[in-house]
Amino acid sequence: MLVGYMRVSSDSDRQSTDLQRDALLAAGVDERHLFEDHASGARDDRPGLAKALAYVRPGDVLVVWKLDRLGRSLSHLITIVNTLKERQVAFRSLTEGMDTTTASGELLFHVFGALAQYERALTRERVVAGLAAAKRRGRTGGRPPAIDSEKLETILAALDGGMSKAAVCRNFGVKRTTLIETLARIEWAGPGSANPE
């Protein structure tokens, strides 16, 4: 059985599923087996897609007018199609001519999978290179420290002088968890003790 899925980005009158509906019906999808969403492709909560995925059974084919109607990204698309494959449901995209019921369609899907993996590797590479470049310039990623360096020096001096962590928190207006995490990060052991109180 052919099951169709359509999506447009909004509920506005300018955006209609008519074009997709006509194409899916012409491809043999029965009107009763059409599901649709009026939502951005970036959204996770697409009830029409959830219903379509719940509706398909082994041997069925999920049909879309265009690949970008289904997945919010290439990797998301690959995930959906792999999930369908595990459930013995085929996938067909009319515009791109991808059809996993054919050998060429299966090959094209594997090429898409390789491209998605390549895209993830490039992104990871760029992030690592960016962090390394920032580190060379003296910048580090993440949130700024909760306790600035001047205040931290005063706190360490107070702790080394015998003040308890509870008293430090009260006197310096620092949360206990923040103090503990900061001390752990700088590996402060305290005067003659691994964990002074």
Task: Name the CATH superfamily assignment of the largest domain.
Answer: Resolvase, N-terminal catalytic domain
Strand % is 5-15%
- CATH topology of the largest domain, what is it called? Rossmann fold
Kindly report how far apart the N and C termini lie. 70 Å
Question: What does this entry look like structurally?
Answer:
By secondary structure, this protein is of the alpha/beta class. It folds into 2 domains: 2-115, Resolvase, N-terminal catalytic domain (Rossmann fold, 3-Layer(aba) Sandwich); 143-197. It is built from 7 helices and 5 strands, in the order βαβαβαββαααα. It has helices spanning 18-26, 47-55, 74-86, 103-136, 149-160, 165-172, 176-185; strands at residues 2-8, 34-38, 61-64, 90-93, 98-99. Strands 2-1-3-4-5 form a 5-stranded mixed β-sheet, with helices on both faces. Strand 1, helix 1 and strand 2 (34-38) form a beta-alpha-beta unit. It is elongated. The protein starts with a strand and ends in a 12-residue tail after the last helix. This is Recombinase family protein.
Give a concise summary.
Keywords: DNA integration, DNA recombination, DNA-binding. This protein is α/β, with parallel strands linked by helices.
What is the topological layout?
Elements: E1 2-8, H1 18-26, E2 34-38, H2 47-55, E3 61-64, H3 74-86, E4 90-93, E5 98-99, H4 103-136, H5 149-160, H6 165-172, H7 176-185
Parallel strand pairs: 1-2, 1-3, 3-4
Antiparallel strand pairs: 4-5
Organism: Chromobacterium fluminis
Family: Belongs to the site-specific recombinase resolvase family.
Keywords: DNA integration, DNA recombination, DNA-binding
